[in-house]
Design brief:
Blueprint: E1 6-10, H1 17-25, E2 32-34, E3 37-39, E4 53-55, H2 58-66, E5 70-77, E6 80-85, H3 86-94, E7 98-102, H4 105-114, E8 119-125, H5 129-139, H6 144-158, E9 166-169, H7 173-188
Parallel strand pairs: 1-7, 1-8, 2-7, 3-4, 8-9
Antiparallel strand pairs: 3-6, 5-6
Helix pairs in contact: 5-6
């Protein structure tokens, strides 16, 4: 694969990583392009195929795994797969851009291990698990059972934070946005 910068943002659901990534994508000085993950689930809310995710069937996802088409992939929940297609990274690098990811903790760490020098791995830490639960409920996109599954997973994910290059505490969004911008700006200018 070609050489380019990889910026990974990972965190438990509801931590604010997507808000931070969207903000960074709007900063022209960073020259970023969003890595669209593949997902074997149905779209939620306003999500669009080819913009938020590549929504593919479970069978198609498994075919891509077998063909080794993924840079990383994870069965996040039973029969609910997410992954980064190698072709997506190649597409972005061909544009001469840096790749930014909004992915789960396990996937983020896999990318960091595969490309240690090219990757900035950032963990976004929420104020508390209670705040995570409140944010997930506020979204109104998932059932109570799904929210509880995400909260249970959050405790495990929070324990991985020290494995990342940097931890951004998202207690005050404007501060977190500025910190993220400066971190990424410093990294891509190396």
């Amino acid at each position: 694969m070609n050489k380019g910068k990889l910026i990974v943002f990972s965190a438990p659901s509801g931590s604010g990583k997507t808000t931070i990534v969207k903000h960074l994508l709007g900063q022209e000085d960073l020259n970023l392009e969003f890595s669209i993950s593949a997902a074997s689930r149905e779209p939620r809310g306003e999500e669009q195929h080819g913009k938020d995710y590549y929504f593919i069937s479970l069978e198609e996802f498994k075919k891509h795994i077998k063909a080794e088409d993924f840079l990383e992939w994870e069965e996040v929940y039973r029969d609910n797969f997410y992954g980064t297609l190698k072709s997506e990274i190649e597409r972005i690098w061909a544009l001469g851009k840096n790749v930014i990811f909004d992915i789960d903790v396990a996937g983020g760490l896999r990318i960091k291990h595969k490309f240690p020098e090219q990757t900035l791995a950032v963990f976004v830490k929420p104020p508390s698990v209670d705040e995570l639960k409140r944010r997930l409920k506020e979204r109104s996109t998932e059932s109570e059972d799904k929210i509880n599954m995400r909260i249970a997973k959050a405790s495990v994910e929070l324990a991985t934070a020290p494995q990342f290059d940097v931890i951004i505490k998202n207690y005050d969004l404007p501060v977190a946005l500025e910190e993220a911008h400066q971190l990424v700006k410093d990294f891509v200018s190396k």
